[in-house]
Amino acid sequence: MTTATTARPRRAWRWPRRLLVLTVGAVVGAWAFDAATRIDPPVLPPPIPSTVTYAGTTARVDGAYLARRGKLWVMQVAGDPVTLGYQHARLASPLMADGDGRMLDLFASMVPSRALRAVVSAIVQARYRRLDQSFPADRRAEIYGQSVGYSDPY
Question: Distance between CA 87 and CA 63 in Å, rounded?
Fold first, then answer.
């Protein structure tokens, strides 16, 4: 009789234990995946924050500008690579956000399952985990400036 009474509590804890092991494994696996695929920014000083001003159809930040001329957008930026990227992102943020939104909508229409989109994104993240190493240092600095200057709504 002692064996039957001790076997029941062990069986009762079998599924909660499995669930706990599965949860811990998933958390550790997600952490390890993130650590293995993370692209660290270059060690550079951040750009000086600047505000965008608008005069008609022209946007300005420091000495840089973005203007609409007919059907074309014209931009002029100047400075070191970090400043170039920062100015570009500050001026073109609305255009970049519009493009990002369209790409995400297209992705959602082509891959309707949210879970499958997460899997596809994880595969892409794993595949291109070392992509930053193929860029020259100046271009990496410019991308860093863009990442600081762009306020991603997504």
Answer: 9
